[in-house]
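Lecture notes, continued. The same structure-token format from the folding unit now serves as the input rather than the output. Read the line below as a description of shape only.
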């Protein structure tokens, strides 16, 4: 019986609360809306709080409440995990109130919102680049911030994602047997991330791509491309003399030099 009355009471309270909120939305009482919006925010009712803040923000411009309302409005979206809108409102807040006590926190949360939108390595990394740039700018603007170490940690994490994506794209070209494109992609990956943990494998893939490109080329192009393969071999073996790919690298080298020697012999006889 007690449980039944408790359920009835909660349902009644819910309907009353909804009715009160609906009336408030239609009301022109700015002070009441502000008061309830703050109350909803403290209670974790972020959707209701954000909706009321959106109604009163235009009316509060130029007042003492405007700054806090704009900041808390952005926080509502952040707490709702709507990071697109949160990032937008936080960055707008920083541009509008750059001297605000909330500016540092808002700037960090703007960057962090981009971070929360970052995707797996195989997907588009626009938000990753945006987040790295935002955190880098944050460190420049707030050089003494307690958040600096956190920024560095997050930037390093995202850079690893970019390294992973670059490596995956290079391997994909190789897997698809697009060896010329693979060579370009590998070269770009190494240039962009010279200290990548995939450096040894990428250099070997570049060597293999060069060899397979030569092997599958028309006769007129093979001499030059096998010579490029030999050059790639020396680059690889000089840097990784004890590589786990050494045996295969030497096979490629031997086949390439054998082709070049036979080709030179043929030209000499002619």
């Amino acid at each position: 019986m007690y449980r039944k009355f408790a359920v009835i009471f909660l349902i009644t309270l819910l309907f009353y609360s909804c009715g009160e909120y609906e009336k408030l939305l239609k009301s022109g009482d700015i002070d009441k809306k502000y008061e309830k919006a703050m109350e909803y925010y403290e209670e974790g009712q972020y959707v209701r709080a954000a909706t009321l803040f959106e109604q009163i923000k235009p009316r509060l411009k130029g007042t003492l409440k405007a700054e806090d309302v704009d900041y808390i409005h952005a926080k509502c979206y952040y707490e709702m995990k709507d990071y697109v809108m949160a990032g937008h409102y936080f960055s707008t807040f920083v541009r509008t109130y750059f001297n605000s006590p909330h500016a540092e926190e808002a700037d960090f949360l703007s960057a962090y919102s981009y971070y929360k939108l970052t995707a797996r390595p195989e997907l588009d990394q626009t938000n990753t680049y945006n987040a790295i740039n935002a955190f880098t700018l944050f460190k420049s603007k707030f050089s003494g911030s307690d958040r600096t170490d956190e920024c560095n940690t997050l930037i390093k994490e995202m850079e690893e994602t970019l390294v992973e994506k670059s490596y995956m794209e290079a391997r994909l070209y190789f897997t698809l047997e697009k060896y010329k494109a693979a060579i370009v992609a590998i070269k770009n990956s190494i240039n962009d991330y010279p200290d990548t943990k995939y450096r040894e494998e990428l250099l070997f893939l570049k060597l293999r791509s060069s060899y397979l490109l030569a092997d599958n080329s028309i006769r007129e192009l093979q001499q030059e491309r096998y010579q490029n393969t030999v050059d790639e071999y020396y680059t690889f073996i000089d840097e990784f003399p004890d590589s786990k790919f050494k045996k295969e690298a030497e096979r490629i080298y031997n086949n390439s030099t054998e082709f070049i020697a036979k080709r030179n012999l043929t030209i000499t006889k002619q």
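Point for the exam: The chain is about 80% helix and 0% strand.
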